[in-house]
Specification:
The longest helix is centred in the middle third of the chain and has 18 residues. The protein is built from eight helices and twelve strands. It folds into two domains: 121 residues, Rossmann fold; 96 residues, Orthogonal Bundle (Arc Repressor Mutant, subunit A). The chain is 40% helix and 21% strand. The strands form three sheets. A five-stranded parallel beta sheet has the order 2-1-3-4-5, sandwiched between helices. It has a four-stranded antiparallel beta sheet with strand order 6-7-8-9, with no helix packed on it. A three-stranded antiparallel beta sheet has the order 10-12-11. The model has no long low-confidence stretch (mean pLDDT 88). With 233 residues, it is of the alpha/beta class.
């Protein structure tokens, strides 16, 4: 049984979500204040956090950043309002895995949850041949999400690991932005190509000696990206 931490200050919405999620076989714990999330999270074992962005106390993006800074890799699905477009992008770059816009149908939420859990299972597979992937004095641990590069040891987000895993498993191939959107997020309506580009820019800062002149994560103009493990390849 999957366990979900629901963080939502609208009690009417929260009651409905708890009722419907439990009916689908999920175990749900509800928190209504942002300042209580980290404490509640560390009291239990959760498979996913369903996190509203606008909360009393700490906002959802701040909470997500703190979780990721502490090495927490549990998926985060943001609940957002329609007028929070900039925050949606900020939330994904802060380590969120997906978002859903209020109001939403329960069927859509369930589909998003299933998509996240399916991608988590894919991330845990050993298709990269080793849990730890090494290239040119750089390392990525796909189990702990820790990586080392020119700047030292860093903690990757779920999505950063997924983007890297997808590129590494197809080393030398040119991967389009649409391929990455479909494989990592599961649909092409959002995020936009700009968001994918932002993820690539961030990954280059972590692994490239000179992010403006990448040797490993290459841009193929007008098409997408290609990964090579050695600058000489």
């Amino acid at each position: 049984m999957k366990s979900i931490l629901l963080v939502e200050d609208d009690l009417h919405l929260a009651d409905g979500l708890v009722l419907n999620l439990e009916a689908e076989g999920y175990q749900v714990v509800h928190v209504s204040h942002g300042n209580l999330v980290l404490e509640e999270f560390h009291h239990g074992m959760f498979d996913l956090i369903l996190l509203d962005i606008m909360l009393p106390g700490k906002d959802g993006i701040t909470i997500c950043k703190q979780l990721r800074a502490n090495g927490v890799t549990v998926p985060v699905l943001f609940l957002t309002a329609r007028d929070e477009s900039d925050q949606k992008v900020e939330g994904l770059l802060a380590g969120g895995d997906d978002y859903i816009t209020k109001p939403f149908e329960m069927a859509e939420l369930l589909a998003r949850l299933q998509s996240i859990f399916r991608r988590q299972a894919w991330l845990a597979t050993r298709n990269t041949s080793k849990v730890v992937f090494e290239f040119d004095n750089r390392k990525i641990n796909f189990e702990t999400f820790e990586a080392s590069g020119p700047g030292g040891t860093i903690q990757l987000s779920n999505k950063e690991c997924m983007v890297l895993k997808y590129l590494i498993e197809r080393e030398g191939e040119v991967i389009s932005r649409d391929q990455l959107l479909d494989a990592i997020w599961g649909y092409q309506s959002y995020p936009t190509n700009r968001t994918v580009d932002n993820f690539i820019v961030h990954l280059r800062k972590l692994f490239e000696d000179d992010p403006k002149n990448p040797k490993y994560i290459h841009t193929i103009r007008g098409v997408g990206y290609r990964f090579t493990r050695s600058p000489s390849e």
